């Protein structure tokens, strides 16, 4: 039995009046609620993705002592709308050598892989579309569709730059999935469950109750996860698949207009998702400090807390992009297989031993005794 | 309450459906709005302004394949470890922590052996593996 | 209603894409059809309530095996990946002779009968019980079974995977130049 947003809402009275409106058809009401909320989440994430492109330019401008976009709307905030309109009115060009079916399909795979992860992202205690029992495992699994999409994007274009970018991208995404998965395993081990509800529920609102400060190993695991997640989303310093100075634009060199827009949208939403996962796995997620009540207004506070943590991480991701130089391909693989994977396994073993040795208590509980 | 069988599945399917809808909607919008003036030169693959030479679909290095193979092994191992990890705490609370730890560590130690072997033999090197292994064999 | 729709669409996806794998002569397209087919299988597992197996299907097959296949196709290179026109009767002799075909046909027949026997069991029992009462979820049940009843299989599987890893590394290593 999985907790979902519908089963959460069904404990309130207005659910029954809604049910009466739907002539007691549970399935239809559940479908309607899911559909409306998914539309809201997709809209929100698309906005965040759009704002991400704006933030990216503005922050990079800041870091390089420039002004950045400032013409469209106040402070250039409407830049993303202008970009969106521009993308739609650009001509769709497909290389005549391309594999037409796969050329169409590649952005769809990226988009599906990213959107499907939104279903389990815990925005707040109740506002999680489906708190699947296999939550985090499902998220890791379905986001690997992006790797196939990137590869196909590169392959189908039949351009040398795209092909190189696609091959690099796919091998990079699958390689870095290993340290990320093993870091997530460490957190699964500490929390005793794969569902986001369990994982966030085992943490508290205050920093010493977060999993990042649970023990030294989980502290390391956070950084392993962070580096791996950066690489999985093709963000700098791991943006080799689209390295503009060597591969023109990598796997989406031949993509124009709306199809390019889908790749970009998927990438920016994926960054948001991995930030959200990092926030809920390691940084306490939506937990409100000091309040254990479960009423509807608290959900709003939880939502704000989750978004704050996620967007702060988003800022860090952009900051990293404009601070570090790009890695070489051989360095990229060496970082993954020779540093991150052994460290991640070490963390997993450490977390297992810690759980048995200290009976699952965190450092703070050991020092101050008892805990909460 | 809603039936237990499809409680969590529906949002997943809806999100995938929304992705497909957005994809086709975007395509439709671009069909309506975008200009359509195809020309041969426009649709040649980009090669820095030169005439493209040959096809991009050529033989790729075997190292990508090696990475894929090693990835699948680790993938399967992590799939097997996930259920055990998720009940580890429960077992520990039941007083079987030591037993669970031994099982878990013996599983991981075999995994470590695997990665140590590949490291030692140079399969994890991106560039040097071919030269170094050839050198070893010619000695 | 929803579960029937999901089943119908998953089954259609599985069978349709499997036919696509057979019908297309382009290796890359076959791989992508296979991806769709495997997605359908994951959907079928999900309709049965086996969430962990469904996600494993996605993780290992769609995220791993299909990418490996795509890499393997890229290894072969060549101008295009369109295979030669073939049908069952015109198979080259390197792919088997009448003995291999008859043995293969026999094995296939046995497998088919076994499957029919298995499926008939499932068909007869209504509403299959997926999770034991004492477990909150399939994951917990799988975990408990792995560390208690099937602990030997769990440990041996890691040795098997080690063998696979070493074998993969050795096969992919460059041979001595002659």
Write a compact overview of the structure shown.
Chain A is an all-alpha fold. Helix content of chain A is 65%, strand content 1%. Chain A is built from 14 helices and two strands.
Write the layout of secondary structure elements.
The complex is a heterotrimer of chains A (about 375), B (about 140) and C (about 180).
Chain A lengths: L2 E2 H5 L3 H9 L4 H38 L15 H10 L11 H18 L12 E2 L3 H8 L2 H13 L2 H32 L4 H6 L14 H17 L24 H26 L13 H26 L7 H29 L5 H6 L4
Antiparallel strand pairs in A: 1-2
Chain B lengths: L8 H25 L28 H25 L1 H6 L3 H24 L7 H11 L1
Chain C lengths: L1 H22 L3 H21 L3 H26 L21 H27 L13 H10 L3 H22 L6
Kindly state the number of beta strands of chain B. 0
Number of strands of chain C: 0
Give unreliable regions of chain C as ranges.
none
CATH fold-level assignment of the largest domain in chain C:
Four Helix Bundle (Hemerythrin (Met), subunit A)
Round the Cα radius of gyration of chain B to an integer and report it.
Answer: 26 Å
Structural Rg of chain C: 21 Å
Major sheet characteristics of chain C: none
Q: Helical stretch count of chain B? A: 5
Architecture per CATH nomenclature, i.e. the level-2 architecture of the largest domain in chain C:
Up-down Bundle
Question: What would you note in describing this structure?
Answer:
The complex is a heterotrimer of chains A (372), B (139) and C (178). Chain A is an all-alpha fold and 372 residues long. Chain A has one domain. Chain A contains 14 helices and two strands; from the N terminus they run βαααααβααααααααα. Chain A has helices at residues 5-9, 13-21, 26-63, 79-88, 100-117, 135-142, 145-157, 160-191, 196-201, 216-232, 257-282, 296-321, 329-357, 363-368, and strands at 3-4, 130-131. The radius of gyration of chain A is 22 Å and the shape is globular. Chain B has two domains: 4-33; 62-131. Chain B has helices at 9-33, 62-86, 88-93, 97-120, 128-138. In chain B, helix 2 (62-86) packs antiparallel against helix 4 (97-120). Chain B starts with 8 loop residues before the first helix and ends with a helix. Chain C has two domains: 1-83, NADH-ubiquinone/plastoquinone oxidoreductase chain 6, subunit NuoJ (Four Helix Bundle (Hemerythrin (Met), subunit A), Up-down Bundle); 136-178. Chain C has helices spanning 2-23, 27-47, 51-76, 98-124, 138-147, 151-172. Chain C is globular and about 55 Å long. Chains in contact: A-B, A-C, B-C.
């Amino acid at each position: 039995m999985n907790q979902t947003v519908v089963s959460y809402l069904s404990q309130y009275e207005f659910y029954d009046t809604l049910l009466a409106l739907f002539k007691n058809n549970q399935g239809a009401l559940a479908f309607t609620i899911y559909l409306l909320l998914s539309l809201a989440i997709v809209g929100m994430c698309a906005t965040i993705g759009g704002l991400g492109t704006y933030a990216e330019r503005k922050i990079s401008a800041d870091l390089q002592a420039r002004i950045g976009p400032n013409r469209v709307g106040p402070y250039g905030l409407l830049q993303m709308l202008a970009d969106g309109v521009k993308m739609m009115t650009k001509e769709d060009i497909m290389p005549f050598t391309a594999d037409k079916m796969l050329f169409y399909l590649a952005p769809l795979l990226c988009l599906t892989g990213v959107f499907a992860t939104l279903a389990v992202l815990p925005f707040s205690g109740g506002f999680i579309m489906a708190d699947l029992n296999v939550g985090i495992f499902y998220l890791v699994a379905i986001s690997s569709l992006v790797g196939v999409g990137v590869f196909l994007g590169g392959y189908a274009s039949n351009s040398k730059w795209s092909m190189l970018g696609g091959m690099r991208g796919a091998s990079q995404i699958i390689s870095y999935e290993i340290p990320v998965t093993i870091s997530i395993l460490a957190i699964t081990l500490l929390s005793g469950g794969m569902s986001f509800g369990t994982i966030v529920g085992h943490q508290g609102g205050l920093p010493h109750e977060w999993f990042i400060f649970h023990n030294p190993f989980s502290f390391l695991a956070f950084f392993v996860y962070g580096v791996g997640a950066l690489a999985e989303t093709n963000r700098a310093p791991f943006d080799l698949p689209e390295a503009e100075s060597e591969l023109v634009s990598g796997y989406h060199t031949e993509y124009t207009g709306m199809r390019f827009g889908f790749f970009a949208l998927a990438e920016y939403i994926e960054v948001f998702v991995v930030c959200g996962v990092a926030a809920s796995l390691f940084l306490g997620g939506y937990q409100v400090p000091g309040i254990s009540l479960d009423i509807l207004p608290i959900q709003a506070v939880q939502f704000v807390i989750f978004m704050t943590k996620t967007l702060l991480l988003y800022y860090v991701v952009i900051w990293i992009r404009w601070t570090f130089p790009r890695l070489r391909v051989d360095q990229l693989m060496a970082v993954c297989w020779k540093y991150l994977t052994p460290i991640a396994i070490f963390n997993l073993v450490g977390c297992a031993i810690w759980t048995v040795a200290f009976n699952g208590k965190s450092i703070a509980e050991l020092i101050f005794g008892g805990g909460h | 309450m809603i039936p237990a069988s499809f409680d969590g599945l529906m949002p997943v399917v809806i999100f995938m459906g929304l992705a497909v809808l957005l994809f086709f909607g975007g395509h439709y919008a671009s069909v309506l709005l975008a200009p359509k003036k195809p020309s041969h030169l426009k649709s040649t693959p980009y090669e820095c302004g030169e005439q493209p030479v040959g096809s991009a679909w050529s033989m790729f290095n075997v190292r990508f394949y090696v990475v894929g193979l090693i990835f699948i092994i680790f993938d399967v191992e992590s799939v097997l470890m996930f259920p055990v990890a998720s009940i580890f705490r429960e077992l520990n609370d039941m007083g079987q922590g030591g037993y669970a730890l031994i099982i878990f560590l013996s599983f991981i130690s075999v995994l470590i052996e695997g990665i140590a072997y590949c490291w030692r033999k140079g399969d994890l090197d991106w560039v040097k593996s071919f030269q170094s292994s050839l050198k070893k064999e010619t000695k | 209603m929803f579960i029937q729709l999901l089943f119908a669409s998953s089954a259609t996806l599985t069978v349709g894409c499997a036919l696509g794998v057979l019908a297309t002569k382009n290796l890359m397209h076959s791989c992508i059809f296979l991806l769709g087919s495997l997605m359908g299988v994951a959907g079928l597992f999900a309709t049965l309530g086996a969430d962990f197996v469904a996600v494993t299907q996605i993780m290992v097959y769609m995220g791993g095996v299909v990418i490996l296949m795509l890499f393997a196709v890229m290894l072969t290179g060549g101008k295009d990946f369109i295979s030669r026109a073939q049908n069952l009767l015109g198979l080259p002799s390197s792919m088997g002779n009448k003995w291999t075909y008859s043995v293969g046909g026999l094995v296939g027949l046995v497998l088919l009968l076994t499957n029919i026997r298995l499926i008939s069991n499932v068909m007869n029992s209504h509403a299959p019980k997926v999770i034991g009462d004492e477990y909150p979820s399939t994951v917990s049940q799988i975990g408990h079974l792995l560390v208690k009843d099937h602990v030997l299989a769990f440990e041996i599987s890691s040795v098997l995977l080690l063998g696979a890893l070493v074998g993969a590394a050795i096969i992919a290593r460059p041979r001595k130049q002659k």
